[in-house]
Amino acid sequence: MLSERQLKLVEILEQRPCSLSELARQTGVSSRTILRDIDYLNFTLSGRARIHPGGSAGYQLDIADRRGFFQLLQRHDNDDRLLAFLLLNAFTPRLQLASILNLPETWVADRLLRLKQRYERAFCLASRPGQGHFIDEPEDKRIILLANLLKRDPLLIPLPGITQSNIEKLNVACRNIDAFPRISSEYLASLILAVYALRNQLTAAWPECRQSSLKKRRGAGGHLSQ
């Protein structure tokens, strides 16, 4: 699955060639990380397109198969949204998922099967005839799974009252919390957003969360990436 940063690299290079240092600046990571991302993108694109140095102009994106290229990007871009909606709802019919994502039902059916196979060791993606698909995990684990998605993109799903401005304020507040030295402020913020999404407990005032509750949730998903 392509990360939000890798998708952003593709978006930048679709518009114009760009130097390595400029790509690093726009994505907020090191040049070495950008080079690793480019290698991974070229592997994933599998000949549909290729990112390569273009001399003084910088790195550029050459697309050989435009239809295959955009279909591949669409699949990667929507996997996270599909998982998020499954985490947020007890049962979601396939037709409803297709409508939410504005994609063909056949695509959703294919992705559900592939996601089930890919993440079978991480969580249980199940279905119930007549009711729909769901992620069959305890609430604590669902919070951790959703937090991992929201860490990559806090605006992945529409949440009432959540704006970019509110997210920035939340990140600032989390940077001032020193009770969790092993958790990054971005991940702590994503945990709070996940709790808000799943339980609708937080308000626009961002009330203080109990530290013991956050520690419990972190412990429940300690094996997952932060």
Automatic annotation (TrEMBL):
Name of the featured protein: Putative frv operon regulatory protein
One Pfam family cited in the UniProt record for this chain: HTH_11
Taxonomic superkingdom: Bacteria
Alphabetical list of InterPro entries matching this protein: BglG_antiterminators (IPR050661), HTH_11 (IPR013196), WH-like_DNA-bd_sf (IPR036388), WH_DNA-bd_sf (IPR036390)
Domain Helix-turn-helix type: 5-59
